Amino acid sequence: MIQPSKEKSPTTSMGVVELSIEDQVGYITMNDYKHRNRFSEQFSSAMLQAFIECEQSDCRVVVIQASPIDIPDDDQHKHHSRFVWSAGHDIHDFPTDQKSDPLIWEESYRQLTRQIRNSHLPVICAIQGSVWGAGCDLAACCDFIIATNDVTFAITPVKLGIPHNLVGVANFIHAFPDHMLKEIFLLAKPINAQTAQQFGFVNRIVLSKNLHSKTREFAEQLKTVAPLCVNAVKTEMNMLRDATAITTDQAEHLAAIRRRAYRSNDYIEGLSAFFEKRSPIFKGY
Amino acid sequence: MSLIEMKIEHHIATLSLNDPTKRNCLSTELIQQLLHAFDACEHQHVRVIILRANTGNKKPGVWSAGHNVKEIPTDKQDPVTWNVPYVTLLRKVRHSLTPVIAQIDGTVWGGACDLAVSCDMIVATTNVTFAITPAKLGLPYNTVGVSHFLGCLPTHIVKEMFMTAQPLPVEKAHNFGLVNKLVEPDQLERETKHLAARVASMAPLCIRVLKAELAKLSDAMNISADDFEHIQMLRREAFRSVDFQEGINAFHEKREPNFKGY
């Protein structure tokens, strides 16, 4: 069993993602302390591999969790929890040629969220600390979220000048009411665990010391229901949610709007500001 | 010289592609002028638009060669996007509430084939062929463009046209209902005018509604966000491939392309 490590820097040879399968529950633990569990191509790919391993085992439930990453003195995150669950996309992976779409269907991260969302297994996301950008999207693709009191969710692409992709928005469309969702997406405003629970995004709020045991309890409950029926209901709900289809013309229109954004000067400004740890100055072109 | 000639008579506008030396290819300039002509028709309460082409002295001529291949970007960006002039033109033709009749004598290539398909009716002569050629250029056609054809021709025929890039003879096009009237060349103008006059004599407001209804219904081929992004990936692989460059080079060098699959 993987216990969330209290040490600052795990020196395990198991790498940035740890998998343990115990009693038909797969625990995937994000353990990339150095990069704050950023979804780089490599990290996402390791996550995907671990997830597929669970699916191919006798697992009935998958839990996605993280070793706590303690960052007490970090300026950037001073208004948030001292823990980071995931810092989101690896900003270094974003193209800067002003030609390439930064968010594409085939990237490992998107393969991972698709795999989770379309999995026949129920997936529980156990969170402590702040969750950024792609981390939120991943949590939204899980079936349940158990969070500690200090959790915050922030979806930040508008701050980075990155036009969010269609699937990324679609994953949230039923997760929050529209007006709330616009605040979250358009203001990149972090919301706390309590607000997220109020709107039903988070299933349970638990004390940090109980996170593991409560998650385990939740997983045990899921083991008592019929797996084939879980699969059927999950698939049905996915299909109904995906029924928000758009016409091909609309899709191409959206592609054009997004293209305009990632080819703009603001796109470069957003990324530069991030790396220079300053506020971006956006001009609208 | 104007690349588009416009004449309005009895509520019927006749727009002529007028760049025969360039085989009426759909250059940005020609499209801009054509878009202006469409706007002018709308302002002047035209009831029917006839779209024809001056094909020069050589018979049978080229109605339109399609895309201006020189204008297709090969620098890894998407060559067929929602806001390029060509796609804007097709949207204009489809979404304009004035019916558009294509009057065709000559061969129709590539993008012009989509233009003809996007018109509301087609009157064609025995000299006509329709070819949709992006696969020969190595160019991944856009999803909307493909959807235009699915509305007008049977699926197997659409696949044959796209996957072989070979011209569809007018007799077949007529049998499948893509072409409304198949006429001898000397009858073309008269038959088209006749059809246009008939449409122009119907209640204009009802025609507008019908056009809107049919456009919305035929556009209603929906797609999920995930499917669309998947298709974009496949298209991106194609327009960033060596084969795309090869297809364009082969076109300019007037030789057969040698595609490798990457």
Briefly say what this structure is.
The complex is a heterodimer of chains A (285) and B (262). Chain A has 11 helices and 14 strands.
Task: Note down, in words, how this protein is organized.
The complex is a heterodimer of chains A (285) and B (262). With 285 residues, chain A is of the alpha/beta class. Chain A has a single domain (17-275), classed as 2-enoyl-CoA Hydratase, Chain A, domain 1 (Alpha-Beta Complex). Chain A has helices spanning 41-56, 108-117, 134-141, 157-160, 166-170, 178-186, 193-198, 211-222, 227-242, 248-262, 265-275, and strands at residues 17-22, 25-30, 38-39, 61-66, 69-70, 83-86, 88-89, 123-127, 130-132, 144-148, 152-154, 191-192, 204-206, 246-247. A six-stranded mixed sheet of chain A has the order 1-2-4-8-10-13, sandwiched between helices. In chain A, strand 1 and strand 2 (25-30) form a beta hairpin. The longest helix of chain A is centred in the first third of the chain and has 16 residues, at 41-56. Chain A is globular and about 55 Å long. Chain B is an alpha/beta fold. Chain B has a single domain, classed as 2-enoyl-CoA Hydratase, Chain A, domain 1 (Alpha-Beta Complex). Chain B is 46% helix and 17% strand. Chain B has helices at 28-43, 85-95, 111-118, 134-137, 143-152, 155-164, 170-175, 188-200, 204-219, 225-239, 242-252, and strands at 4-9, 12-17, 48-53, 62-64, 100-104, 107-109, 121-125, 129-131, 168-169, 181-183, 222-223. A six-stranded mixed sheet of chain B has the order 1-2-3-5-7-10, with helices on both faces. Chain B has a four-stranded mixed sheet with strand order 4-6-8-9. In chain B, helix 1 runs parallel beside helix 2 (85-95). Chain B starts with a strand and ends in a 10-residue tail after the last helix. The model of chain B has no long low-confidence stretch (mean pLDDT 93). Strand 14 (246-247) of chain A pairs antiparallel with strand 11 (222-223) of chain B, so a sheet runs across the interface.
